[in-house]
Specification:
alpha/beta, 10 helices, 33% helix, globular, Rossmann fold
Length: 276
């Protein structure tokens, strides 16, 4: 099967409905959301389910697709900007926004993360930036974090997830797809939900160290779910599976086997933006 090109960033116009079903829907989506909510609720000073705040946060969902995670912030009274390169993903977000009557709280921008500054009319810093499952679809993933840093106000927070190369290697080893490992053939086929650039967490953490960012939280998402190859077994005890995913998501060595890695970061407050 033809491989996805790594010469350009991936646009999901052709896969929007599959993303909605396979990534955000079902037990996979429940696990993802549970880990994100647990991490953010424990570390952020405000959260949608917490007490109301006098001053709403300004929130950016960068490459946010249908806005599944960020719309709960809009429901709680915060101002949300969702940008995405895919018009079809934004249509899914728009349908949800209309359903929830959040038109006054959410702005949709059809743009890549890299070009977003052209659409913000000078209001380019946010209290909280969400960037989930974007890095691994970029031609130059190493440029994403410096780009996101420009959107972070001093002291602001960044929730970052990326597709874990170690998980992909381990799953192929278990399935005896040894040729893929030998050839380091990790990029997804055309039409696949496997990204073009799965990321080595050690490399991502090196990029983080080079920037004025502090790590507040580090978790794995789906640390064992995806290795249960029998679908009947996977669905046998969903509540226990979800609870155990949460329990092991921050324990090594299980954390490092998560299909995705979640890192909650904070921009250091004592950095002069002019020297960056």
């Amino acid at each position: 099967m033809a491989k996805e090109s790594i010469q350009q960033d991936r646009n999901f116009d052709d896969l929007a409905q599959r993303f909605k079903k396979n990534i955000y829907g079902g037990l996979k989506g429940d696990i993802r959301l549970a880990v994100l909510e647990r991490d953010c609720q424990a570390r952020l000073p405000i959260y949608p389910t917490g007490p109301k705040t006098d001053k709403p946060w300004r929130i950016l969902d960068a490459g946010g697709g249908q806005g599944q995670f960020s719309l709960q912030w809009a429901k709680a009274g915060h101002d949300v900007v969702i940008c995405d390169i895919s018009s079809e993903m934004l249509k899914l977000a728009e349908a949800q926004i209309t359903l929830l009557q959040l038109e006054n709280r959410v702005t949709l921008i059809h743009s890549s993360v890299q070009d977003l500054h052209r659409h913000l009319a000078g209001k380019n810093q946010f209290d909280f930036v969400i960037c989930h499952a974007v890095m691994e679809w970029l031609q130059e993933p190493q440029l994403l974090l410096p780009c996101l840093l420009d959107y972070l106000a001093p002291g602001a927070y960044l929730s970052l997830t990326f597709y874990n190369l170690h998980s992909l290697i381990y799953k192929n080893l278990l399935r005896t797809n040894f040729k893929k490992i030998i050839n380091q053939d990790y990029g997804g086929s055309r039409g696949s939900l496997t990204p073009i650039n799965p990321q080595d967490p050690e490399q991502v953490f090196e990029w983080i160290k080079q920037l004025p960012l502090s790590v507040l939280c580090h978790s794995g998402i789906r640390v064992f779910h995806d290795y249960i190859f029998n679908e009947e077994h996977r669905a046998r005890e969903p509540e226990n599976l979800l609870q155990l995913e949460l329990e092991f998501s921050q324990r090594e060595p299980y954390r490092s086997l998560g299909r995705y890695i979640h890192v909650l970061l904070q921009r250091n407050e004592d950095v002069n933006p002019s020297i960056l």
